[in-house]
Every structure is written in C-alpha cells, then in structure tokens.
Amino acid sequence: MFLLRIQMPDRSGALGQVATAIGSVGADIHLIEVVEKATSRTVIDDFLLQLSPGTLPEDLVSACLQLDGVQVLWLSRYPDGYGIESDVAIASEIGEHQERALEVLLERVPQVFHAQWAAVIGIKEEKVLMGTENAPQLGAEQIAALEPFTIEHFSEMSEAWLPGWGGVALAVIPAGPERLLVAARHGGPDFLESELYRLHHLVRLAKGTRGDRPATHHAAMPAEN
Asked: Minimal CB count within 10 Å: which of 62, 116, 183, 192?
C-alpha cells in the first residue's frame, strides 16, 4: 500500500484527471482525503492506493506530473490494513474512553496523521512517558530541541537530532502541564498548518480543556556542521 500526497488545481474535473492518471499506470485507489486548501486556487489531497505488480512508484509520479498544475508532494509506503481514519471517529473514541483519552489519541496518531511514530514527552522528567511501537527514547538534549514547549509548531530535524534515523519532520503539540505530544514523519513531508490545528484540537478534546488556539510557529533544527 502507498500513500500519495498531491497538490492540484481547485477546479472542477481536476480530481478526476488525477484519478485517471493514477489508474493509467495500474494503481488502484482505495481512499481519498482532502487535507488542505493550500491557496484559493489549489487543494492538497491524500490518496491511499495499491500498485499493481510490475508498476514502479516512479511510474505513478511521472503520470501525475504530466498534468498541468499538479505537484507530487509525497509518496511513501503505508501499512497494509490501515485506512484513512477521520477526526470524527477518533474524537468519538476519545469521548468513550475519557479515563485514558490521551493514550487513545496517541495510539491513533500514526494512522490518522500518517506518521511513523508518536510519543507523549515529560518536559520536567526529560523522557518519553508513552510512545507508539516505533517511538525512540529521547534524551534531554533531543527534548530541549523541541522548544518552544508552549506553542504548537512543526520542526524539521536533521539526522544529527536522532542519529541513524535520517531527517525527521515533527509536529509538537502542548498536551498539558509539562507535557508534549510529538508526531514524527521520517523524510517528510512537513506537517501542514491544517494538520497542526487538527492535532491541537484532538489533544484539547483528550485533555478536556477549552481555550483559544495558540499561534502556529515553525522551528528548525540546524544541520550538523
């Protein structure tokens, strides 16, 4: 299974053209999700699809890029059996399990936000308190690089931040006093502002809090010299 993220013109017929191009190389679309209206004229969609035997990912990318105004933002393998789960579904599950709401959200973040792993980090403890299956252990220096701790933001970390893992795109969301929820995509793409907002909203539901949404901020980890 593959997850394909495409930016395309926001006009009638554009989605059909992309779907036709995908089908022309023998790919079978399982699900489509509108991720964000990037501008007043473009939209970003995620396609969950299966390639037929003998079809290369490069063939899929080439077919899409032949369309005017279409950009391929991301193509990566996606776990078989995963669907594109809606925020409504996860919000409902959080409501049914309030006693362990943050843990429920953490378990669903990789699937809902197409991330490799997610973790709840204790700032004062300087360690990972809860993590999904692939979440690494983080030390004090790695956690300090996630600042600011009080504002939702995305960060682009170089391989120096987590040696052996390559570059990592992170979403960092305050999740209560001295707590952060972090979602990670190895190799990208960056988390969009709309994805940060969705994740922030779900964290608020899990914590049972109210309040204004904090401003979005982008932080970058300097590359290793």
From this structure: 62
pLDDT in tens, 106-165: 999 988 888 999 999 999 999 999 999 999 999 999 999 999 999 999 999 999 999 888
Q: Which residue has the tokens 């790695």?
A: 142
- In degrees and rounded to multiples of 5, residue 42 shows phi and psi of -130, 160
What the block records as the tokens of 100 is: 């362990």
The verdict on 166 and 109 lying in the same domain is yes
- 99 lies in the same domain as 193: yes
Separation CA 97–CA 48 (nearest Å): 28
Work out whether the CA dihedral 203, 151, 177, 109 comes out positive or negative.
positive
Residue 189 preceded by cis peptide, ω within 30: yes
* pTM for this predicted structure: 0.72
| Cβ contact 70:7 at 8 Å | yes
The residue out of 39, 58, 77 marking a domain boundary is: 77
In terms of residue numbers, what domain contains 183? 87-220
Show the low-confidence residues of the chain (pLDDT under 50). 209-225
Assigned domain for 21 exists: yes
Cα-flanking dihedrals φ and ψ of residue 127, to 5°? -160, 165
In which element (H, E) is residue 25 found? none
> Look-up: residue for tokens 């970390």?
157
CATH code (residue 15): 3.30.70.260
d(CA 3, CA 39) in angstroms, rounded, equals 22
Domain stop point among 34, 56, 77:
77
